[in-house]
Design goal:
It is a single chain. This protein is mainly β and 238 residues long. The chain has one domain. Strand 9 and strand 10 form a beta hairpin.
Length: 238
């Protein structure tokens, strides 16, 4: 039975808590997952390691809509160990990067809470490789690899809790994605949906860049300096 030892070790982001017009959004997420499955003494084991980083930067056109550029890089490595005569170790490695646009819609829920939903549209490219080692009287090693590229679209909702001066905590429980890829060697096209609602739990820290400056400017209305000067002139006449 698969046992999850560590899921999402670290997730950190710098972004927006309550979207405000004419401000900027920058964010970055990082995560790592490792798990190992013991298939029994007569079968072997499976070990899986996954990590990724996903930065982004955008502009908030109004109090709800943010548009920007996002990307990411990650790796997934799986090692299958099969016992027997002979024993076999199969290591599969996949590295991938993504680059595209994102659209985020933020809706205040009242008080310090708000909800945002982000749509990511990404071009992706990666390399898949495999190494099979067969242990026996004569140990053999077989290697293979392939390149691929494609497209991915995903929708991710989250809840933001405002903390202090533009800082907030963000909580998510997965999302929905569609992915299509084309491999070079096999000419093979794969596509399908990925649903992770309830299967992931993400926690992030976010900040609205420029919100404090906007609040400060709000106390200085146009013409205020003129009214102050006029008041001084009246005092001199007295």
């Amino acid at each position: 039975m698969k046992k999850l030892i560590l899921a999402l070790l670290a997730v950190a982001s710098v972004g927006t808590a309550n979207a405000q017009k004419n401000t900027f959004l920058t964010y970055g997420n990082a995560g790592v997952m490792w798990d190992k499955t013991d298939n029994g003494n007569l079968v072997g084991s499976t070990e899986n390691t996954t990590w990724n980083i996903t930065p982004g930067v955008g502009y908030q056109f109004n109090n709800h809509l943010t548009v920007g550029v996002q990307g990411g890089y990650g790796q997934n490595k799986t090692i299958n160990n099969t016992v027997g005569a002979p024993s076999i170790q199969n290591t599969m490695n996949n590295r991938e990067w993504q680059l595209g646009a994102f659209f985020r819609y933020t809706q205040p829920l009242g008080g310090i809470f708000s909800m945002w939903t982000q749509l990511d549209l990404s071009y992706l490219s990666g390399k898949w490789s495999s190494e099979v080692i067969t242990y026996g009287p004569a140990t053999t090693v077989a290697n293979s690899s392939d390149m691929y590229n494609g497209f991915q679209g995903s929708i991710t909702p989250a809840i933001a809790l405002a903390v202090h001066k533009g800082w907030a905590l963000n909580f998510g429980i997965g999302g929905l994605a569609y992915r299509t890829t084309s491999y070079d060697k096999a000419p093979t096209v794969t596509n399908g949906f990925m649903v992770t609602f309830g299967q992931q739990f993400n926690v992030g820290v976010s900040r609205n860049i420029g919100c404090c400056m906007s609040k400060h400017r709000a106390h200085h209305e146009p013409g205020m300096e003129h009214r102050k000067m006029k008041k001084h002139d009246d005092d001199d006449d007295e």
